[in-house]
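DATA SHEET
Item: assembly model
Revision: 1
Owner: S.N.
Input lines:
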Amino acid sequence: MLADPHPARIVRDPPREGEGKTPLLTLSGISKSFPGVRALHDVALSLYPGQVTALIGENGAGKSTLVKILTGIYQPDAGEINVAGAAVNLPTAHAAFERGITAIHQETVLFDELSVAENIFLGHAPKTRFGTIDWGTMRSQAREVLDAMGAAHIDPDTRLKDLGIANKHLVAVGRAMSIDARIVIMDEPTAALSAKEIEELFLLIEFLKGDGKAVLFISHKFDEIYRIADRYTVFRDGEMVGEGLLKDTSQGDIVKLMVGRSVDHIFPQREAHIGAPVLKISGLSHPTEFDDIGFELRKGEILGFYGLVGAGRSEVMQAIAGITRTSRGSITLEGEAIAPRSAADSIEKGIVYVPEERGKQGVVIGMPIFQNVSLPSLKRTSKSGLLRLAEEFALARKYTERLDLRAASLSQDVGTLSGGNQQKVVIAKWLATAPKVIILDEPTKGIDIGSKAAVHGFMAELVAQGLSVIMVSSELPEILGMSDRVVVMREGRIVAVHENKGLDAETLVRTAAGIVAQ
Amino acid sequence: MNALLKNREIWLLAAILLLIGLISTRYGAFASPRNLANVFNDTSILMILALGQMVVILTRSIDLSMASNLAFTGMVVAMINAAYPAVPVPLLMLIAAGVGLALGVFNGALVWKLGIPSIVVTLGTLTIYRGATFVISGGAWVNADKMSPAFIGLQRMQMLGIPLLSWIALAVIASFFVLLTRTPLGRSFYAIGVNPTASVYAGIDVGRTKFVAFCISGLVAGICGYLWVSRYVIASVEIANGYELNIIAACVIGGISIAGGIGSVGGAVLGALFLGIISSALPLINISPFWQMAISGSAIILAVVLNARGERRQGRIILKKAEAI
């Protein structure tokens, strides 16, 4: 390394005493709650220098919340964070950065319009005597950082947007190196990478390990975890349920840790009256998201769709609902081939899609409840082009009452409701279109237990009335508790269809993750 | 939301009344019904334009080309009138509406089909339409002596003691009220402004709805093209130059959120009236045009501040109620 007069630069500490045995970062007793949801409860985590720790857990297990606490975005309600033996507070993202904690996300958070060198040194760029940025030094230091990482192919002057995702990851790591980050968090870094790029990323992780960094690696993919990580920590429902060395632990043991949970509420008992097929999908394909999807949905059935995030479940549903286009395949509704060209098309035909992100895709905050409910049904509530407010109110009242919505008035802004009640408004909105098939994408994500039970009870009531339901869910108890059959998707394809009789959680997780039975 | 909006309008109305009160202490005749009716008549064109602009702003877009559209359309009908005085005025109004609509369709199509931000599209067409006005007229003016008496006189005709121009404004206000509060299309404007993603899922075509909004703003700009030219009895390349800023100012003062999804017909009308009163009253009480501009400018900033605070207050209410439930 060249001698350099500027303080803002790479500092490589000599190997630390007891490397690999004393944790560089420990969390203990960390708890975090959001209104109605307990995200983390009394969790512990240790990261060791020169080792990669895999953080494993289902969706909603609390992994992202933990990352946000580590990077100073959320503040824990209780608990202690120790970095290199000293208790620290991380009140801001900057504080975390200064402590040497850096995160590399699935979608890298860097600046597309700036050069590689600027991205690496943003906020700590070398300065000239006059306090302006010393471009020459910045470039040469960026060059050094990139070379040291084996990323000699990246030119520090390239604009970031001209790089692929894998190279953006390299820049993000370069940034971490330039501040002497000692703790590197990688949140699903491989999600958008090709096989070759993943190999390059693994080389980089090996480099970080060799350099004494503590790496937290979050991934859903078992092969990657076993390939690169040394230790594991499993979270389930916001609690830490196990940790240890991967070489001593089988995949099956980890799956057991992930799913072995107490049932947190009773699912409605119902007797399925399953009739003839209503919706038939065959050969449905999309250029990038899914391929050759085929399944049948029968009258009065709840069909569960299980899979890991990114398996393509929502994308398939959006295609069926006319929101995205497909390249091939056919959709048959009650014996009639349909090709929905827009969401309005599908709604008219009787297929509705209740999207996953309630705030962004579901409710229209700022509009009163009744207008939210009537939004997709305006054709029916209006007469000769004019809206009839009385009809809208009647429609909204009918469906919100069925869902036991608690609101002072239907004219009240939907934004004033709790998450659970907002979800009821969203479901009421779709029911009001009188659908034949209703697709619920993560219907109980992020809502409290009471509202969950109401939504589940209502799903049972819907199928009893002869509606057909597709339920996309990443929550195993919900899948197992509600579905008549379960379709498992992995990497854009359907890999299994199970009758939900004696089906167990482990089988589902194994199929979804592509683990061959031992 | 409605209650809050009503509040805003009431505040604006109070400000207008206060303004009238202040002015009448200096110039007593200002508050007479006769004079207020005149102020309303003088502000009619601005009110109509502000309503057209409001629909566009509701959909998170903006139409900067309305004043140029007005100038072009005004020139077209004035030239037709000068060349063929026999063409009946109602037909000319239809032509104005049609030409304005066509220019709006052009804006809307660029926004919808090419996905270009509306501020860029209409900044371009602002110049194009103004330039086209020069091209068709060769830079020449159409003066009063070339216009037919019917062309000039129609909007001055009185019904029940009120000029036709005011009646037209009232009719437009009523139609916009029905459009925005009583039709599925009106509801869509609000929905896509507040939450475009959720609107897509609800089966609303966001692009097409924006397109329709631009058609509406083009249509009203076209109608105002005739009204303007016949009112000020001149058509030239320069008419209503920079007037798009007054139109947007009226909307902002009227509490229409530039972020989209919030706004009402009453707000747009009152916003326009506020500007109309300032511009008609201040010369009467010997305040220089410079102060007029400064006062309008302050009103805009004050309106934005008050609206922003209003929205924050709403935020607190949400938290309180969420806890209560």
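QC remark: Residues 289-324 of chain B form the longest helix (36 residues).
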